[in-house]
Every structure is written in C-alpha cells, then in structure tokens.
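Retry 2 of 3 after timeout on previous attempt. Resubmitting structure tokens to design endpoint.
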C-alpha cells in the first residue's frame, strides 16, 4: 500500500489502472472509514480517534483487498455494511444497507471520479433504483413497492391498500418500526389483484347456481366448498375462486345418475315432500358431494339448484339426524322462504308484523328466523304435514278450536295465518292418518 504514495507500478484492476496512487489510497482509506464507522455521522470524518479503533487495521485491509479484487471484492464491503442495516434510518434499498457510502461525495467529500466508481459498483449490485441485491429483489425474492407507488404505477385504489395495511399480514415494515411507512411485495400484489378480479362472492354464487346462502355457507364450514384466502380477499365478503366454483359445479353435475331406478323429488322441494323443512337441503347437498345421496340433473333451462332431483330413499336415511334448522346470522329472503315454508313475498309481510326482523339492506335477522322455526308454523307447513290442501287448513283448525297466532295479507291468497307450533305438535307426528282424516 505504501507503494501507492510513491506511484510505484501496480497491476491494478479496471478502472484503477489509470488512477494516481494517492487517488487509490484515498479510496481505500474511505472504505476503511465506512467499515469502521458503519453508522456514519459527518463529524466522524474529522475524528482522528478512528485510527485508534481496534478494528481499523482489519477494516483497512478489507478495503485494500476490495480495491485489488474490484469489482467482486467490493461486494464484501457491502456485506459487512449490511450487517448494521437495522440500525439505520430508512426502510429498504441501498441507503439502508450501506448508509453514507451510498452518497460518498456528500458524506465524505469524495472526489468525483471516486464517487462515480462507487455509484457504478452499487448500481451493479442493486440496480439504478436501489431495490436489488445481486440481481434479485432486495432482501429476498421480493420487489417492493410503496403505497404511493402502487397507486400511481398500477392504479390500485386507496380502499384496497388501506384494507391490506389494516389486515397487516401482507405488508412489510422496517424491523422495529411499527409506525414506518409500509411497502408491498410488488409481484405478489399484482398477481393477487389479478386474482381478486376473478373472485366470485357467495352472494353472486347464489344467483349463478340458485343454492340458498345458508347451503353455501354450510358447505364452506364443512370443507365441501373452499373459500378464497390470501391478499386478494382482504376487505371483501366471503368469496370463492372461479376454479372452485367450476369444481363444485362439475362435482354436482358429473356425479349424477344417468339412469337410475327409484323415487326422485326436486331438491328445492324435498323439505316439503318429507315434511322436514328447508333445513334438510344442506345435509342432502353434502350427501350428494360425498356420494351417499343419489341424484339426477334434469336438462332444463334453469339454475342448477332447480335442476337437481334426489332419491327420496337416500334422503330419508339422513332426515332423522338433521332436524335442527341451519341458521346464519343474516339470511336472504329466498333462504328464509325455503326455511319456514312460505312464499318469498310473505317474508316481507312477516317482517312487517314483527315475527321476523330485517337485517341489512335486504336481509333477515337469523335469530328471528330461528325463533320462528322453534315456535311457529306456516299454513303451508301444516298442509304438508297433514297431507291436505293448503286452503283447507285454516277452516279445519278453527273447527278444532285452534286460533292463529297472527295473520297478514298474503301476496296471492288474501289473508294468511301463522300458527303455534307447540299446539300443532299435539295433533301428532307428520301425516297421521287419523288427523288427516279428521280434516
């Protein structure tokens, strides 16, 4: 090293073969300085105590080898400086990794040619934007992008990004900096936003397939339907991937019996057929997916739910174990109508007289539906139970001295009634011949 000051001949690597000895010596001392004072500070450049540091000699030799093996030797200097990255300000990139070495002309007063060589060396490791390390995204296989960058570069709106930050599982922060600006893995963010556009909310799946919401939620809870997860679903209602929707449709259509003997009934009315209510639909669909309930799919211009017919003998095997109603926290009008065995328009009328409670914009509160199932029966439910026409039920019950709990204006038949379940249950089990004859 002393030969550099006397301009002795050296076999120096490019670009130093045209430099003067003292210029190279200044570069070596500067690199040694940054290795010894990795956290920097402008006053450290004038502090002569640095030469008394126990690590000064070894750091100076590391700097010397870095210059003599340039540019590969310089990588060792960066590796050493990166060990102190967590103690520096900033969040990612070269400024956090190498500190003041990233701007040596300002921090050290380096010559223009020295600063240019260091910049080119850092660019080769990090890229011009300072986000890369050895050709890969900084700190692993991630190319990071800020909140503002995601908005400006990719047009992702504030609401989605804020929901991701609130969720907290898909954002990156500087270690120990809980209030630091967040960054995202750009590649993952773009792929998840593309996936987000193809997600199908369960509410839309109801319209596509015709199944009640409580059936879809029950299939999700039992693992028969896989809900989408990850960054794409943050801030969204429960949804499924498009491939999962197609898989469910294929399982329901592909497993049906082409030609099978037996008594079949539409899935949409099997609850009425067996006098067990709409709650039986969920275990029946689960049985279809598990292969324990035989079914056929009619070639009709309807939604899938209305095209499926199931073997009644298979359904009867599971009715004894599934009498409890399946109630969600909030149910659609279609779900409620199927559950309590009334027409859809009657659900609104029951809500007006207080037997059902509204929830949300168009939903019905699940607890009010549960209370209705436990305490009341519709006229249609009694007609199914007793195997008599619906129009004959009110007059026959009144003859027996049974008064309705409430009445309302039905959409198609004038006055409609709600009856006490406990009183009707006294009449006996479903479809008893004596009771039916009495009617």
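Retry 2 succeeded. Sequence:
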């Amino acid at each position: 090293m002393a030969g550099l000051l006397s301009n002795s001949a050296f076999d120096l690597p490019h670009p130093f073969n045209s430099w003067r000895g003292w210029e190279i010596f200044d570069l070596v001392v500067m690199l040694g300085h940054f290795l010894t004072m990795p956290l920097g500070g402008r006053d450290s450049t004038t502090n002569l105590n640095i030469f008394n540091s126990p690590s000064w000699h070894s750091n100076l030799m590391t700097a010397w080898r870095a210059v003599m093996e340039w540019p590969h030797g310089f990588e060792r200097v960066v590796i050493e400086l990166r060990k102190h990255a967590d103690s520096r300000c900033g969040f990612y990139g070269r400024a956090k990794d190498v500190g003041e070495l990233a701007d040596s002309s300002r921090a050290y007063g380096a010559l223009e040619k020295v600063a240019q060589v260091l910049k080119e060396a850092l660019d080769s490791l990090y890229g011009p934007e300072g986000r890369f390390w050895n050709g890969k995204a900084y700190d692993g296989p991630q190319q990071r992008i800020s909140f503002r960058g995601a908005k400006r570069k990719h047009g992702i709106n504030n609401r989605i990004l804020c929901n991701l930050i609130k969720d907290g599982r898909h954002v990156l922060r500087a270690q120990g900096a809980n209030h630091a600006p967040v960054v995202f893995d750009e590649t993952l963010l773009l792929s998840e936003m593309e996936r987000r556009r193809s997600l199908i909310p369960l509410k839309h799946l109801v319209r596509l397939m015709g199944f009640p919401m409580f059936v879809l939620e029950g299939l999700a809870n039992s693992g028969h339907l896989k809900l989408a997860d990850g960054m794409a679903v943050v801030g969204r209602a429960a949804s499924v991937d498009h491939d999962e929707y197609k898989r469910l449709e294929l399982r329901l259509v592909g497993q049906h019996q082409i030609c099978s003997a037996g008594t079949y009934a539409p899935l949409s009315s099997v609850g009425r057929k067996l006098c067990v209510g709409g709650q039986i639909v969920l275990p029946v669909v689960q049985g279809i997916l598990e292969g324990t309930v035989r079914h056929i799919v009619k070639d009709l211009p309807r939604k899938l739910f209305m095209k499926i017919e199931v073997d009644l003998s298979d359904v009867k095997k599971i009715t004894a174990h599934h009498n409890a109603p399946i109630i969600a926290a909030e149910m659609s009008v279609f779900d409620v109508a199927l559950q309590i065995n009334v027409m859809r328009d009657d659900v609104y009328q029951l809500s007006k007289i207080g037997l059902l409670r509204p929830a949300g914009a168009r939903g019905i509160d699940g607890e009010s539906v549960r209370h209705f199932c436990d305490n009341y029966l519709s006229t249609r439910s009694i007609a199914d139970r007793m195997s008599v026409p619906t129009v004959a039920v009110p007059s026959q019950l009144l003859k027996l001295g049974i008064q309705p709990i409430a009445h309302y204006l039905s959409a198609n038949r004038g006055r409609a009634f709600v009856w006490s379940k406990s009183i009707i249950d006294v009449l006996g089990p479903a479809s008893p011949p004596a009771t039916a004859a009495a009617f």
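Attempt log closed. Residues 135-141, 430-439 have pLDDT under 50 and may be disordered.
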